[in-house]
Design goal:
about 0% helix, four-stranded mixed β-sheet, mainly beta
Length: about 100
């Protein structure tokens, strides 16, 4: 899933893994509340673009999740900067993905 998936619902089955890749190093994933459907499957990986100017936020932030039980979970990430010294509008600063897990 990528930035363009924000606001959508993703269907998974128990045992599936989900990889979310957001296109700026300014994104920060928020922890999931206690949830029986999805859990974090490791730490967040930040991969800066080597050709980026300092402060540009070029690169990706990647996090993986595992579907561990049936139900729904909301994955969110936020950012306050959308480039060098550029504040994000409310819609640019929040990523939300609903995950629906079935057996």
């Amino acid at each position: 899933m990528t930035d363009k998936s924000s606001g959508t619902t993703m269907s998974l089955h128990v045992g599936d893994r989900l990889r979310v890749v957001l296109g700026s190093t300014y994104w920060r994933f928020r922890g999931l509340p206690t949830n029986p459907a999805v859990k974090s499957a490791g730490s967040t990986s930040i991969r800066p673009d080597r050709d980026c100017l300092p402060g540009g936020g070029c690169g990706t932030v990647v996090h993986q999740y595992s579907a561990i039980g049936t139900g729904r979970a909301t994955i969110t990430a936020t950012r306050t900067s959308c480039g060098e010294a550029m504040a994000c509008s409310p819609e640019q600063g929040k990523f939300t993905l609903i995950v629906s897990v079935s057996a």
